[in-house]
Amino acid sequence: MSNRPLASAGRAIPLLRAGLIAGIVVAAAAYPLAAVTGIGAKATAHAVEQKTSILKTALPAETSYLYAPDGKTVLTMFYEEYRQYTKLSDMSPNILQAIVAAEDNRFYQHHGVDPKGVARAFVSNARSGGVSQGASTLTMQYVRMALRDSASTPKEVQEATQQTSLRKVKEMRMALDVEKELSKEQILERYLNSAYFGHRAYGIYAAAQIFFSKTPATLTPVEAATLAGLVKSPSEYDPITSDQKDATGRRNYVLDRMAQLGYLSPDAAAAAKSQPIQLKLTNPPNDCASIDEKRTSWGFYCDYLKNWWSTQPAFGENRLERMDKLRRGGYRIVLAIDPKVQDAAEKNVGAKDGTGSPFANGIVVAEPGTGRIKAMAVNRNYSLDLSENGPSSNPEAGPKTKANYPNTVAPLLGGGSLPGYQAGSTFKMFPMLAALNSGKTLSTEFNAPYRYRSRVYNDWQPTNASGAMTGQQTMWSAFGKSVNTYWVWMEEQIGAEKGVRLAEQLGLRWRTDVDREHAAPDRASKWGAFTLGVSDATPLEMANAYAAIAADGRYCEAIPVNSILNRDGTPAMYTTIGGVQREVAKPRCRQVVSADAARAATDAARCPTGDTPAKGSCGGWSTADSVRGTVGRPVAGKTGTTDSTRSAWFVGYTPELAAASFIADPDNPFNAVGDGMSQVPIGAVAETLRDALKGQPTRQFTPPSDQIVG
Description:
By secondary structure, the chain is of the alpha+beta class. It is 39% helix and 11% strand. It has a five-stranded antiparallel sheet with strand order 7-6-21-20-19, with helices on both faces. β19 (636-641) and β20 form a beta hairpin. The chain is elongated, with a radius of gyration of 33 Å.
């Protein structure tokens, strides 16, 4: 055979159709089971009809890449089969020639089935009394791999790969049909992107990366022959093992075949055979735990991405299908995380005890108007290695149960299955916002007692944290001082269910049986303690809910991405309930309360932070009056603590960013953090907002109207 350039490779020597059919007849004789079962054109026609359309378009599973916001820095990958589809034009001619030499030296002469190869297999099998040769052409091998890759059930995988005469004859028939539809170049390209080379390397791109840390375009004859030699038996000819004798022998066989076919001169082949196999190994990262140690905290954000992905109908009917798409779909995903904001968040959480505390101090930062999550940080290392973790602080967990620190992959910040933590008085925002949206004014007064007896909530008698809160209060002062009795009274005026339903509209979900029971439509009107924050919530939920207030009442679903591209470079899309096609990565926003109500709530929420509202008075003191001085710009927010200070919270926002921070023991909610720890989340939010916004122009909150001020 002459050493033709690839451009002429598709001009195969014509073969008579009758000769090809004869090849299948010989195959039936070569495989006694086929003859016994009478396999012929009619027996296989239905299977061929079913599978040919798949083979025409089948693309193998491809690795999905997760990028930093610059769209260039790869953080990690998601795959079951490490593979990146590569065009033939981006492959070195050396690998094209090597794979033909190794697997099918008559590739350019046959039409999918090689009668000469079948004849050789017949003779060999007759002598051995079994199936010692299979006569598989590159096209037949591609058929097998395409059927495997397009299989949706274990049974289909087995049928595509089992060593039976039935499968072999069907494979031949399909190979003939495939060669009518695809050019030799197309078949070779798909083959090289489907073949398995060992060590999780599926396709030539992965093989070149794993074994030689290079792209397929730069493979030398020696490297190409080494890789081509692996396809026959990746484990037997594995060059990564300490003894490379078998790998070298197989490589040299391929080099000899390349020389015989005219791809290499005899001298070049001899020189190549004299060289040792020199590997430069790469271990491609996979999943969130593989993110570089320098960005270990980004693992929590990556994990949030996975949990978010698993809820998106655009990627499948259920969680299993969606995660399979992530690992096999070849997506290019660019995170919404902001490195500057993330650095600020990491710097300002857990500063006192670091990762060595049972109390988790975490923070989430959301962007008003888009719902994009800009940072997630917690005083933990994202790691699967729990060997150095001590015993859990929960006495009911048992001595063998590991604590959640210093290492964990638990979704402590939200977005997963954990219910979160009681959020205390940060929940007062919901009845206040509902009241303002229902027509109440900021100036609504109530003479709040220390203890209040509720006639609506079955004589429940909540109290204030301090006697100093007793007296005439407006929304400004009651929110700034966190006056429990005022907000229970306000809840009675509007109906507790309005606050509950509004919280749901702002993204909160009830994850415990107790919370679901109280939030039920027939019970919510009696949930008086809702305003005191007895429900569990996550910092992800709270940051995004408050971000909607900063965005003048426009709620946007929390989203961890800037963009998601399909393997063909087009944006990933989904269909709305109304039948409209939209990009999955675009913000999904809706107006939940009026802009004026949101602005009024913000005006009152400036009181807890030590800021000055545009229209009213905070009453002389507040619960987090250091925040305004730390942030150095207009800021609103709310503190929250639970009974016995088992957990403490602060949620704060500027026009640009909203941040929620908590401190609690995720292992044991009864392990109280104590009053001394209540300042930790306040400091985390204030310092993060300060550092994240440093150098940016100061923006002002829009004042509420005189009508809603009252």
